[in-house]
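Ticket #4471: structure output looks truncated?

Reporter: J.K.
Steps to reproduce: submitted the chain below (106 residues) through the standard prediction queue, then opened the result file.
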Amino acid sequence: GHAHEARSKLLIALPATLNIADARTALPALMAQARAGSGALEVDAGALANFDTAAIATLLELRRIAQAAGRAFSVRSVPPAMVDLAGIYGVAELLGLSSNGQSARA
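Returned output as attached by the reporter:
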């Protein structure tokens, strides 16, 4: 059933806009959400439309929280521009993103 799956995985959806200005308020909320859950942490980036390096920093921060708790971390529905940005910063592999659109853990 779905109730059981919800317990073993936490899905966090990123907002449509996540730039440096937004991240100041968005990041603490997302981090609180991540810490409140348990099980694998999955981030849905499908809504992201306006973003800059702050979105990458946010993902790295969420990944750090998951890893510190020994939880799996994955990102889904990542916009191509974000994959490119992650590639520029050399963190695409770290975040499980690759430019061919295939998740490393698919």
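Triage note (M.O.): checked the attachment and the full token line is present. Confidence is low (pLDDT under 50) at residues 101-106.
Status: closed, working as intended.
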